[in-house]
Amino acid sequence: MFIWFHKLASPPYFYKFAGILAPWLAWLSLLVIAAGLYGGLWLAPPDYQQGDGFRIIYVHVPSAWMSMFIYMVMAVAAAIGLIWRMKLAHAVSAAAAPLGASFTFIALVTGSLWGKPMWGTYWVWDARLTSELILLFLYVGYMALNHAFEDRRTGDRASAILALVGIVNIPIIHYSVKWWNTLHQGATVFFGPRAEMPPSMYIPLFIMIIGFMVYFAAFILKRLQVEVLQRERNTAWVRALVAKS
Amino acid sequence: MTPVRRKRLIIVVVIVAGVAIAAALGLQAFRKNLLYYFTPVQVAAGDAHVGQRFRMGGLVAMGSVQRSPGSMTVHFTLTDMQKSVPVVYTGILPDLFREGQGIVVYGTLDKQGLFVAQQVLAKHDAKYMPPEVAAAIKKAKAAQQAQIAAKAAS
C-alpha cells in the first residue's frame, strides 16, 4: 500500500493513473448531479415561505461547501509541498485554485441572486458575505502569485505560504454566522428533533454535494495531468509521450 | 522525519498559529464594528449611535403591521422580546417580510423614539418546510389554542 502510494507520487505514473480515473469520475459526477438536480428541482416540495425560490440552495450550498473544501485541499497540499518538497503536492495546489475560485464565484453569484427577492438586496457587507469574498480574493491572489515568478519553484513556495496564511479565513467563514449578527442565516439543522428541513429537501442537497465532490475529483485529476506535463516538459518521459502521439 | 523536514514542519505550524492568533486578536478588537446590526436592547442601552444612521435587527411584532391605504408606508414594531421600537418605512418590502419574521432595518431614530427606516431587509430563519406541513402545523396550533381557551372558559 505504502509502495503504491510512493509510486503514485512519481509524475509519469500519476499521469497515467489520472488519465484512466478522470473520465470515469467525470461521467459519475454527471450522473450524480443529474440525480441531485432531479430530486431538488422536481421531487422536492416548494418551501412554505420562499416557494420555488428556495431551490437555488441546490447549487448555492454545494458551491459554498466546495469553495471551503477545495481551499483546505489547496492549503494542506501547499504545506506538504513546503515541508516534504514533494513536486506533485505543489501541482495539486496550483490545479485546485481555479476550481476553488470558480465555486466561490458561483456561491457568491447564486447567493446574490437569491438575496435580492428574499432579503431585499443583492449584497450586504456582513461577516459571512465579506469573508466569502475574501476567500475569492485569496484564490485569485494565489493564482497570481503562483505565476508571478520566472522560476516555477519560487512561485510554488511563495504562493504556498499565502495559501497557508489564508486558511485562518476558513473557520471565520464557517462560524461568522454564529460569532456575529449577520444578515446571512445560520446553518440549518438537518437531523434530530429540532430538524429545520425535511428529508425530501435535504436528500437531494446531500446528493448534490456528493456530485460536486466527484466533479472536483475528476477535474482536479484532469488539471493535474496538464500541470504535470507543463512542469515535466523537459524530462525524458514527457518527450517519449509526445513522440508516441 | 529528517531534521530539515522537522524544521520546515515547525516553521509551517508557527506561521499558521501566528496568523491565527493575529486574526483572533484583530477580530476581537473590531468586534463591535463587525456587527451587522444592533438589537433593540442594545439600542435602548445606548450602544448604537442615535442621531446617525444605523442598522437594527429583530422580529416584526405579531399584529403590529399597519399599512396606510393608498400609499407604500408601513408602520410596525420591531422587537427582540425584551425591548420594542416602532418603525415606519415607505417602499417595497422583501418577499420574506411578514409578522414574526426576523428583519434588519436601516435608518435613524428620531427624538420621539420612532425609527425611520430607509431600507428594510428580511432575514431568513434557515427553516424549510413544504407548504402543506406549514399549514398542518398552523391548524394543529390553532386547535391546541382553541382547546386551552375552551378549558379556561369551563
Taken from the alpha-carbon principal axes, the silhouette of chain A is globular
Helical content of chain B (DSSP H or I, runs of 4+): 25-40%
* Portion in strands of chain A: under 5%
**What does the overall shape of chain B look like?**
extended
| CATH fold label of the largest domain in chain B | OB fold (Dihydrolipoamide Acetyltransferase, E2P)
Could you tell me which chain pair has the largest interface and how many residues each side has? A-B, 42 and 42 residues
The arrangement of helices and strands of chain A along the chain is HHHHHHHHH
Order of helices and strands of chain B: HHHEEEEEEH
The count of β-strands of chain B is 6
Radius of gyration based on Cα positions of chain A: 20 Å
Give the fraction of residues assigned to helices of chain A.
Answer: over 70%
* Count of alpha/pi helices of chain A: 9
Give an overview of the whole structure.
The complex is a heterodimer of chains A (245) and B (154). Chain A is mainly alpha-helical and 245 residues long. Chain A has one domain. Chain A is 77% helix and 0% strand. Chain A contains 9 helices and no strands. In chain A, helix 5 packs antiparallel against helix 7. The longest helix of chain A is centred in the first third of the chain and has 33 residues, at 11-43. The radius of gyration of chain A is 20 Å and the shape is globular. Chain B is an alpha+beta fold and 154 residues long. Chain B folds into 2 domains: 3-32; 37-122, Beta Barrel (OB fold (Dihydrolipoamide Acetyltransferase, E2P)), CATH 2.40.50. Chain B contains 4 helices and 6 strands; from the N terminus they run H-H-H-E-E-E-E-E-E-H. Chain B has helices at 3-29, 31-34, 40-44, 131-153, and strands at residues 54-60, 66-67, 73-79, 84-90, 102-109, 115-122. A 5-stranded mixed beta barrel of chain B has the order 1-3-4-6-5. Chain B starts with a helix and ends with a helix. The mean pLDDT of chain B is 86. The chains are: A mainly alpha (245), B alpha+beta (154).
